[in-house]
Specification:
With 153 residues, the chain is mainly alpha-helical. Helix content is 68%, strand content 0%. The protein is built from seven helices and no strands. The longest helix has 18 residues.
Amino acid sequence: AANTKVEDEIVTTIMLWCLDAGWFEQGLEIAKFALDHGLDMPDSFSRDTPSIVAEEIANAALSKIKANETFDLNTLLCAEQMTEGFDLHDPIRAKLYCAIGKLFLAQNDFPPAIEYMKKAIAKKDNVGCKQDLERAEKLLTKQQEEKAPTPSS
């Protein structure tokens, strides 16, 4: 509530527990505080706080997508926005972009799906969305052809 930096690893540990438990709203609220104040993960963690936020949420989304379950796109977009100013390893950023692209594809919103999947592949070639990218591009082409005016005779 005071919104001041604390030297307490419990905050980032609880953030991770929330993300692991699927309590993304609470986890992102703590993540915002942690990132705004430069809080570090406990020494027992090999990744930094921004990497944990991006990767844990991307992993959760990709698991849900693989199981044909829903995941909130806004949660991923929030994680992307929160971590965009941080230097993340390319595979972590790629995973986040891939998950976002796949969720846009699931909503039949092809332009952002294509954009995010291309960004993901640029960060890590084998991130796991090349076939989805091809499908999105074909579906977008089909959609544009269907919307194109037919020439009158």
